[in-house]
Amino acid sequence: MRLWEYFKNLEWAWYKERRRNRLQQWDVTIIASNCVGTIMYHDLGLPFRTPTINLTVSMRDLVKMAGNLRWYMEQELTECALPGDVDWPAGLLGDIQVNFVHYASFAEAVERWEERKKRINWDRIVLVGAERDEAAAVPWLEKSAQHGNALAKYRLGKLLLLGGETVSKDVQRALELLTECAEEGNQFAQYTLGKAYLLGGDIPRDQEQAVHWLKLSAEQGNQYAKYYLDRAYSSIFSSTASLLYHMGRIFQEQRPQPVGGMRVGVDSKLRRRIREKKIAMGHKPDDHEEEQRMQ
Question: For the whole model, what pTM was predicted?
Fold first, then answer.
């Protein structure tokens, strides 16, 4: 695993733990248009109190469902045919198409749907809808960034730095946008730049740049920047300590050995026992050496 991936996973685990600790309600029903709701339940460690798990519906249908949710939850799912190149089951819920993209069969999907539908908490319902088209977003973000929109610079810079399914990486352009945004005081751009320079990957690691940007972001209250800043300082300390240790070893190895062989110190307790044994064998009390020579 690359260093970037290791820290990314570590950061994500820390982020999820913080979100779990801030939860005030644990019995929430999330009605979602795709697997985002499933991921939220999973990452927060919550029980699935919704039938919309491992499936997709269009945003248009989600809005329609939200307008009369109880009625739709009372409808029976009926299987519907999909084009031949689609390998997942689908069903109709009234006039809404539900795509069970992570189920092996329609029967399994219906069984899970009915089981989870009974767990809905009608007093705490959250709607989550998402449809993403990164390729379509790039030209609009570019236009907005050219007009000085700091958020557009940050979002476009991050998108080009990481790439996506429909967007190719452009590290040079990403650094230009993020640096410009960071210099304007955007703490999120500062954090992204600092983390990128700290972990390396598509851009060379630069400890000085990493500390600079992470410190600026942390000063604005960014907790994630503080987290990485601590690790940046730890890395500097470890590198310095390691360098001093190895320099000490080099000097020790280069120190001339004493003439006449290697001098070996003898433990005081052992020396006392040797002396007592010599005396018992008839030697004089002062007939001993504090140090021995190995020829």
Answer: 0.49
